[in-house]
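ok so I'm stuck.
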Amino acid sequence: MGFDPVKDAMRKAATKQKIIEAGFRVFAERTIDAVNLTEVSKAAGVAMTTVYSYYSSKEPLIMDISAWVWGQYTGEKERPLDWPGRTAAQEFEFYLDSFIDLYRNHRDMLRFNQFFNVYVQREGVPAEHMQPFLRVIDALAERFHACYEKGRADGTLRTDVSEREMFSKTLHLMLAAVTRYAVGLVYDGGIPPEEELLFLKDLLLREYRKEP
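replied:
not stuck anymore, here's the structure
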């Protein structure tokens, strides 16, 4: 049989995806700093030379993992924030609930994200290398924009606060809170984590929801 470029491209894509998923598992479990590419190759069940044919260093692999894992979540686990028949306030509450869903069902993502943030800040990763990840954040912002515009139309959200400020504060506060619980960076005061996360959600609802 002759060389089939389509099958070859599919095989290469599948191998690369295997490396990405294996990298995600070991980085989320052991931190990015503690794992090298040799250990990723073992977790993926491929030769080290195969890993090097896709990734010459750890940095581009980490960028691809971050874009993949957040792309999977935003693409498959969330619905648009512009459902017909729902008020903007109801959509905003769903948006906040999506962070609590991360804590309940995707703590491995949150652990990886914490290690990712530490890595990129320490290594001074340039913005152009982070474009796949930043495109995911842009997609979240676009989804939030529909909610904010609906709030301007139906009057159920405070649009006297800028869209940028509302998106940034809610994203950073909720993501920081669920991440700290996922990696154990919190004081154990005997209060269940979800109770405190729901309290934070209610604070943000009271801040940004416009009562009739």
